[in-house]
Amino acid sequence: MSKLPSYNPPGHLTDLDGAGLKAWSTQISDLIDTSINVPDPAVSSRGQFYNLTRTDTAADATEATVTWTAFPRIIKLTSIGDLQRWKRADASRDVQDEYCEWSVTRDTTGKITKVTFTCEGPEYWSLLAQTNPAAVLALYRTFVDPAVQQDDLFGVDGSYNPLNRWNDSTSHGAMHLIQRSNTLGAEIELAAAATIVRIIDGEELTTEQQLIQCGMYGVPERNSDPHIGGAVNEIARQKADISLADPVGLYFNDLSTDGWATPDGSDPKAYWTYVRGDASHPVRAVYEVPQDQGFTVGDITINGKPIQFGAQIADFITIKLTAVACRFGLSTTAPRTTCG
């Protein structure tokens, strides 16, 4: 197999023009190179992580999809009961740290009519705003609210504000990720750091918590970080070269509706729709019941309880990333014998 000509945008989105596409590929390539070539020799030894545009992917290549639950595990660990954790998770995007953020729409009685979920990284939107600001405004008007104005999104100097009024809460829209840990750069760095095989005091580390505590990448209490790191390291221990599959990004994997019930007996999964990204790489999802159905999201129950929070749905959403690995058994990168 040959080198990848260029990195594609997340979800194979079509918002970028020619110059934007080139800039995006360069940006992802640079992030990957930076994660490989760590200046501090004490943290390097990332010889098993590679750039798809600079190194061939061998014929034995295989892809591995890693999935995790969208509900923020830290909130779950620090809450007393379901009601408290759902309220806390719905209260602020700052705590929605599993690469999935959401915004809830309610009717005049407070009943939920729609919940919008996004897993689009902020880097894409920053670049789109630089290369095609008109597209940014059009997308906000399409997916968030027709009332969005240019001044709502851009400062007087023309700079894009990702924490604008239409993307900074859990009630007025969610166009893309804003939680500080939810970036593509973090995803890339985590994957690169996890390729380091570690043998400490003669023992090869294999468990998710051993690896993340020793490697000091990500947050051990999250659903995502230790699981991503553990999956990547398992491949690295097979002496394979590893990268993130193109297009690099975080994507929705699935919504499970086990235990859900609708008032009319219809399939609750039917109201889950992907609205951005391609079929294999969805980056935006909406849970909403059509008006002619005669009921709303708030009338649907999960394990007997009506949906009162977007967080109840997040309990059943899984997010994914995909790694690609090749040259199994051939890596000569030596394991590290220290942590850090």
Question: Outline of this structure?
Answer:
The protein is α+β, with helices and mostly antiparallel strands. Helices cover 28% and strands 19% of the residues. Strands 1, 6, 7 and 13 form a four-stranded antiparallel sheet that branches. Strands 2-3-10-9 form a four-stranded antiparallel sheet, with no helix packed on it. A three-stranded antiparallel sheet has the order 8-11-12, with no helix packed on it.
- What shape does the CA trace take? globular
Mean pLDDT: 95
Termini Cα gap: 35 Å
Q: How many distinct beta strands? A: 13
- Global Rg: 21 Å
Low-confidence region ranges: none
Total count of domains: 1
Class based on secondary structure composition and strand pairing: alpha+beta
Q: Give helix and strand order, one letter per element, not per position.
A: HEHHEEHHHHEEHHEEEEEEEHE
Beta content: 15-25%
Tell me roughly what share of residues is in helical segments: 25-40%
**Main sheet overview:** 4 strands, antiparallel
The tally of helices reads 10
